[in-house]
Specification:
By secondary structure, this protein is mainly alpha-helical. It has a 5-stranded mixed beta sheet, sandwiched between helices. The radius of gyration is 35 Å and the shape is globular.
Length: 883
Amino acid sequence: MLFREEPLRGTPKAHRFLAIFVFVCSWPVFAADLDECRKLFIAGKYEECIKQCEEIGKDRAREEEWPILLARALMAVGRYPEAETAVTNALAEARFRSSIRLHLAGHEVSNANGKPERARTLLEEINNLGGSRMWAYRDPPNLVTLGRAALLLGADPKVVLEKFLDVAKKADPGLRDAYLASGELALDKHDYELAAKIFAEALKKFPNDADMHCGLACAYEPSARGRMLKSLEAALEHNTNHVSSMLVLVDHLVDAEEYADADKFLARALAVNPWQPEAWAYRAVLAHLRNDRESEDKAREKALHYWKTNPALDHLIGKKLSQKYRFAEGSNYQRQALAFDPGFLPARIQLAQDLLRLGEEAEGWELADDVHQRDGYDITAYNLAGLRETMGKFQTVTNEDFVVRMSPREASIYGDRVLELLNRAKERLSAKYGVTIERPTIIEIFPEQKDFGVRTFGMPHNPGFLGVCFGRVVTANSPASQGGNPSNWEAVLWHEFCHVITLQLTKNKMPRWLSEGISVYEELQANPAWGQHMNPRYREMILGEDLTPVSELSAAFLSPKTEMHVQFAYFQSSMVVEFLVGRFGFEKLKLILHDLGEGTDINEAIPKHTAPMEEVEKDFAAFAKERAEGLAPGLDWEKPKSMRVASGKTREPGPVEVPPSAPPREHNEADSAKATDPNSTNYWILLQNARRLIENKNWSEAKTPLQKLVDLYPPQTGSQSAYAMLAVVHRALNETDQERAVLAKLASLDGEATDAYMRLMELGEESKDWGTVAENAARFLAVNPLLPNPHRYLARASEELDKAPEAIDSYRRLLLLDPPDPAEVHFRLARLLHKAGNAEAKRHVIQALEEAPRFRDAHRLLLELTDVKTDRTNTANPTEPTR
């Protein structure tokens, strides 16, 4: 006999063999069923998934993934107690007691049901199982589980990524959970670049997976809202019930102040899961923004229905309120989150940032340091720790109304000018808006853009901002951080301080568009050369399809098509303010701001004090169109076909260059006729012809189109304006008086025309027109005070205008900027100080001689200072030092 017969005990041997055979043969069927169920879950068919798990999964009790999948599907539709029962029952079975995947699922469902202690116990059991039976968990799914558990237990994220998640991904490149865990880790640590890379890689393998599209959307959220929206659209296309994507979209809509649409998506999310905690948290945010405290409390109560001490929900509510500049309310929610769980780090770092933006710096920095000590991989905390060290070296320039922090070098060069500018702004704007500022305003000016980014956004990137106001705290980029073409820092600080006024007046309860619109409007009121003006591009956008309805203007800042559209949003907002003030009066604007402070919605406050919103939007559109059409009405603005591109977009004004390999443009007789017509008034052709003539150095001929341009379009600005080009032409032709007149006009129009200011200083010095020199030196210093030349010009002009204190001040600043001829600067300063009876004169004349030992006039001055008689025979020009 091949087999010895044994007494029949239990299942006969042959039957046992048959059972094994049947199980092995049916394994592909079981696997197919499980795979089908996974697909149902990923596609958002949660009820079908639940049904299959309950009907098929109970017969496949050997597979741990059935109860896990069941629990996840139940959680997705808000059946949290049933999900907990499913996992608890599975863990009670002997075969699953060592399943760390079920333990991790149990951790999630226990938290969802408000049992954090049970959740913690399950985590510790995973830790114990992994430590004692590591050999049993070396397969990829269990490695991912160990990695996730390790992160929850506070393990080093880098170690988790390298030792668990990357190993699992390498062992099984098709393991979905490995990509999800890695991407979520990167998002959690604010490493958005890495997260985008991980999810983009995952989508090559799982193109129809909504979780992957949603993860990519979250990675894009801080820097590319357009891409984010496309990813969310893809996610919801593949899973119409994907609540996570709906909530990311809700978050975006709240930022865009599109609250009605946000409500619609929340209703859609709650239709899938009536108890989704974050959805109810967002409902609380919307209620708060509507000033509906009762609804806010009810929504928060529902958010906490199953887990009454969930810190993540108050953290979410507070974070969204802080993003709306409600930092005081936001910080209160973070404190509530920390009352539930003092170790909840997201709330700690958010509270740190809230307090820093409120000016409560001692506690804010302490919290940021604490988070950094607890989690060395939290990028925001790490960045803030480094920033604190940098700012510890800043110098403070202060008075009773302002605390200005700058680098020591910049503070010594123009810190007092900053205070002077801010004092003027406070005096004018406080009176105009009827606001009394009780506490000093904090102004922080950063010579490094990355430091500005960290202080402002928590990250070193800077999406194009020159300054940001949080209420009583303002952050700004200094001219040093902006490269060779800095913006007018005086205009920037005036703009930001106007935010201080309007945010205080409204208790930080105003839409972004109105806040920005008023600040740009007030720039123009303070100085017509500041702010934004109608230009050819804005004209084209207004008369095209880029004008945004007033009720939707805030969204124009959030997801613009291009950088130009961001600038246009500022411009349009200022036009709306100008329209409201011009049509209904400034007092009506103040009443609108007062109502916003009381919690009234902007789309209710405007009609209350002006006209129905539909009428306001209609009349504003007409106002904007009239303003656009009123730009140089004597010019023909039709863009020639040769300057259009295939996409339908138009080229910006500029020389049209064709690469040698490019095919010739389609000949257009009408264009050709306009280009050669001496009487043409087409803006684009006049500009193009002028540039062509300048490039060919046909100076005299270039004057004709340029003069026509400035005659028909007087308010041109920018380095590429016809004024700037006409000045170049006059200079080439040695027509100095005409050049001076053209540059003077440009300087009066443009607050950042530094080339014009510099040339006017040169011409003024040559002609001894010291008033012009002083005026343009001051203009230049309002843009860039960190270059020596404007200080030298201002010092010389002040000296010649008998303004000794101003001249002394300018020479002292000039010495801080490493001037090309320090000996002359020291000598002139010494001479002025001597006349003023200041003992410092001797030190400066000695320094002049150290630089230039044969400096004869410095020797004479030193002898005079030491009371030694000398022959004072002077040179032909006693004001000019001789060497």
